[in-house]
Specification:
This is Cytochrome C biogenesis protein CcsA. This protein is mainly α and 114 residues long. The protein has a single domain (27-109), classed as Cytochrome c-like domain (Cytochrome Bc1 Complex, Chain D, domain 2, Orthogonal Bundle), CATH 1.10.760. It has helices at residues 2-36, 55-61, 67-76, 98-109.
Length: 114
């Protein structure tokens, strides 16, 4: 019996490590995309920059039900979605495809505390 438990436990730990590494890699990839698209000029993961909401604040305010609306905000910019803060129009920042906007919004919403 001991011979089965040890390899099974080891395999379980390795799988969890792989999942954690994959999640960390996804987070790093998404942060790189946010940096490339200049989202991080105004937004950070925490509330360090007072002129715009952090990714964490956005995740706390909105749910996955708001994802389509948030994708449109990323694509078109504008105001009236977060107090008096105004998101720059697309011609004032790098182009973001709908696919990229969807990935960014989903990544941000995954930060929501449960």
């Amino acid at each position: 019996m001991k011979r089965i438990i040890a390899p099974t436990a080891l395999a379980g730990c390795l799988c969890l490590g792989s999942v954690t590494a994959l999640a960390d890699s996804h987070g790093k990839d998404m942060m790189k995309l946010a940096e490339d698209k200049q989202c991080t000029v105004c937004h950070t993961r925490s509330d360090d920059v007072p002129r715009s909401p952090s990714f964490n604040s956005i995740a706390q305010k909105y749910t996955s039900d708001d994802a389509d609306r948030l994708v449109e905000v990323v694509l078109t910019g504008g105001e009236d979605h977060w107090g008096s803060a105004k998101m720059p129009e697309m011609d004032n920042r790098p182009e973001v495809s709908k696919e990229e906007a969807t990935k960014l919004v989903n990544w941000i919403l995954e930060m929501r505390s449960k």
